[in-house]
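Posting for a labmate who doesn't have an account.
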Amino acid sequence: MVDLYYCVMETEEFEASPRLRGKACWMSALLFVLVWLPVSYLLGAGWGKVIVNLSFGAVLAVVGLWHYRCSNPLTYKISLGSWAHRTYLKSPVLFVVESFAEGFLIYLGVMLVMAFFPDGFSLSAWRKGIVNCDIVLLLVFYTRVNFFLVISEYIRRNGR
């Protein structure tokens, strides 16, 4: 049975080291390179597309290194009481699995809608759209990893 209850959401701001964002860049670049590049190659991307994606991952890793070396603190905002915050409090592993599955399904759905526009739906157009617009998937990976690290850092500091 699902319990529905009223929950008040509040937004908290806290300052943290920019190393948190650097870690998010590194983790999402590694995830993109280790998971998505073999999949995109199996979906039919040529070596040229794989090298371009590898360079995007390298650029994100360099940005992560730059953030890791910065010393000025960054201000992060987190919504306490949100669905994602409550899921993380129940189970951080479930939060990671659900968050990445949700992001990947949103990505596939957007690519499915985009496959309808040129001249009706075809499976080859959908596969081509998935492979050609995979930089969006890199951004999805980054936002999910960054959100996970921000929530975990806030809870590590404040304990709720």
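Reply:
Got it, the structure tokens are right above this. The chain has a mean pLDDT of 79.
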